[in-house]
Amino acid sequence: MPVLSEILKVNDIYYILGDGRLKSTMNSDFDCDASDISELMTEDLFSENTLDKVKNNSPKFYQTLINNGFKTTLVVHIRKAKTVSGYLVCAVKRSLRIWQENECAVLYYVAGLLV
Predict the structure, then answer these.
(1) Neighbours of 50 (CB within 10 A)
(2) pLDDT digits over 65-81, tens only?
């Protein structure tokens, strides 16, 4: 986890499984609602430097991000073939964070290893 956090320049990596709960890999007490994230995830990867699209498409996930001080997010599917089993999420408290292509590729690769 420390190497991955360093590559992605994040303090934590979050995940969402079938129960729709956003959980932390570093803090077992972190448990928030993200049950509508599928409305946002029409592609394998979502990368935006603001939360505008999240607000419009996934209000519960948006509220969770806002309540925790996050201002931008990177999300990828965890899936095998056409079956989505969850999501990996990088969220940061900096506004206008621009996700680099190599960061997106690393998170996408890690999600592929989890199936």
Answers:
(1) 13
(2) 999 999 999 999 999 88
